[in-house]
Write a structure and sequence with these properties.
Elements lengths: L5 H15 L6 H17 L4 H9 L14 H10 L8 H20 L16 H8 L6 H18 L4 H4 L2 H16 L18 H16 L4 H7 L17 H5 L2
Helix pairs in contact: 1-5, 3-11, 7-9, 9-10
Amino acid sequence: LWNMDVWSIAMASTVLACKMEEDPRDIRHIILVFDRLYRRRRLVCVEAEVAAKILKSSQIATSELAKNKSLSEKEAILRQIKPMSPLGPVYDLWYKAVVEMENRILRQLGFTLYWMPDSHPHKFILYFLRFVLQENECEKTKEELSQRAWNYCNDSCRLDVCLRYESENIACAALYLAAQDCEITLPTHWWRELLISRGNNNDADGILSTLGNAILSLKEDDATVAAHSFLPSLKGDAFNDIESYLWSVAD
C-alpha cells in the first residue's frame, strides 16, 4: 500500500474476481461502477448521522459540495452527472490503472488462482449448521441463522482475515456471532470440533475470540467512517488524494 493506491487495487481485484467466478465483466462496466462509487464517496452520500461523523474528521477527503448539501440534494447532483465517456482522458487513465494493477496482482500471486474459488468461508456455513443444529430445529430458525452467518462472512471480506486464518475458522466465527444475534443456544464449545487449530482448546477459543472481535470492530465509528469515505492514501498522487489530477477533474 506504500507503492500502490487502494482504489486501483479494488478495481483490479473486482475484475479478477469476476473472471475467477466465471462471471467476467467488461472493464468499462467496472470503471463506470467505480466512477459512480467514487462520486458518491466524494459527496458523502450517506445518512445525515454518518455524514456528520465523516465531515467532522480532518483526515477525510471530501468534495466541497458535501459540506452544505442534504442527502436528497446530493442524490439529485449525481443523477445529473453523465457516465464517464470511454473516449475521454480520464477514462483512459482509469483504464490504464486497472490493467496495470491487474498485472501487478497476477505477478504477485504467481498467476496461481485456481485455489481461491474453493477457499470462501461461505461454503462451510451450511455444513457447520447441520453439525450444530438439532434435526428437529424449525426451518425458519435455520434460515435466519444461516443468513446472519452469511452476512458476517461478507463482512469478513472487508478485512485481511482471509490471509491470516483458514476459511473454516472464519465460518465458525461468523456462525458464533450469528447465533448470539439470534439468541440461539448451540452445543457447548461446538467450535472446538470444527476450528483448525494447533490441537488445544485454548488455541481454538483464542482464534474464535480474535476473529469475532475483528468482525465486530467493523461496527465501530472509525470503521463506518472509513467504509463511506476516502482516507488519505499512503501513496502520493493516488485516486483518493485531493491533490491528484483525477480528483480535480472528477467534478
